[in-house]
Amino acid sequence: MEKLKTYWTDFFRSDRLSDNWWGRKKKLYEERNAEIVSIKGDGHIHRTLRYDHKTIYNYFLHLAFLIKQEGQFYREEAVTPYQFRLKNGEITAHRQISVLPESKIPTIQPEEGREDSLLRFSYDRHAAVQYAERWWNNYNPEFRKFEVDCTNYVSQCLYAGGAPMWGQPNREQGWWYGDSNWSFSWAVAHSLRWYLSGSEKGLKGKEVESASDLTPGDIICYDFQGDGRYDHNTIVVAKDAQGMPLVNAHTDNSRNRYWSYEDSTAWTANIQYKFFRIGDD
Question: Which of 83, 118, 159, 221 has the fewest C-beta atoms lying within 10 Å of its C-beta?
């Protein structure tokens, strides 16, 4: 739609952006000695709602940024859901659509116990990253798609890397996925964060101090409000020219996004992170 193209062209050209995600994103690039070489975008309207003589459009915006940093190039992509109304032929009430929070899912702690076959596993980081790249903007039909899909996606990547499931059918135990059920740690951001903090068998994570300590295949957990409730998980897929992680994620589907998420509409100055090295290495 030509109106949307004009809207986003004006948005990216505007200088009054210091308080929104685009302003924070540009500042972050400057701090990283990186520059945006080009921006390409494509919008797809997937739902039209009509009521009370009003029409509301829901669409997905696919943005691709070609980034140059210290002589190296990489492509960052994101697919984000938006909504707007047309009033007298002009776009109004334009906003990003929020997904439901995971606030009512119980916190779980890792279970004690020993099974020799689960005490160690060989983590194939390359396979985990390959899976993350294959499905960053799509959904494997072998698994359920969740409205808040970030942790489900990360769990699938870990499983592709060889992480063994255990705990079925108790949803509050272990880390597992079945045909019609799954553990809370498989699909809930806060639960996976706590599972990784203390699991002593099967899938295990070692908490490290800094994002720079991570390598592709590792996991970052995000508490956007800084209230102790973790909202989001990503998987590291690459390192930038300064050795810092680039991540893939679902819900707002993203590829090669800078790990700190300062360009997210969910970001706050109170954000807290947890960094996990996966496996026994």
Answer: 83
Partners of 255 in the beta sheet? 77
User: What local confidence, expressed as pLDDT, does residue 279 receive?
Assistant: 85
Over range 64-81, report the average pLDDT: 96
- Taking the C-alpha atoms of residue 54 and residue 34, their distance in angstroms, rounded to an integer, is 43
Cβ atoms within 10 Å of 132's Cβ, excluding its own: 28
HEC per residue, the chain: CHHHHHHHHHHHHCCCCCCCHHHHHHHHHHHCCEEEEEEEEEEEEEEEEEECCEEEEEEEEEEEEEEEECCEEEEEEEEEEEEEEEECCEEEEEEECCCCCCCCCCCCCCCCCCCHHHCCCCCCHHHHHHHHHHCCCCCCCCCCCCCCCHHHHHHHHHHHCCCCCECCCCCCCCECECCCCECHHHHCHHHHHHHHHHCCCCCCEEEECCHHHCCCCCEEEEECCCCCCCCEEEEEEEECCCCCEEEEECCCEEEEEECCCCCCCCCCCCCEEEEEEECCC
Q: Residue 281 burial by CB count (10 A; 0-12/13-18/19+): exposed, middle or buried?
A: exposed
Q: What is the pLDDT of residues 136-179, one digit of tens each?
A: 999 999 999 999 999 999 999 999 999 999 999 999 999 999 98
Q: DSSP string spanning 163-182?
A: PPPB-TT-TTSSB-B-SS-B
The number of residues in the chain equals 281
> How many Cα atoms are found within 13 Å in the side-chain-facing hemisphere of 2?
1
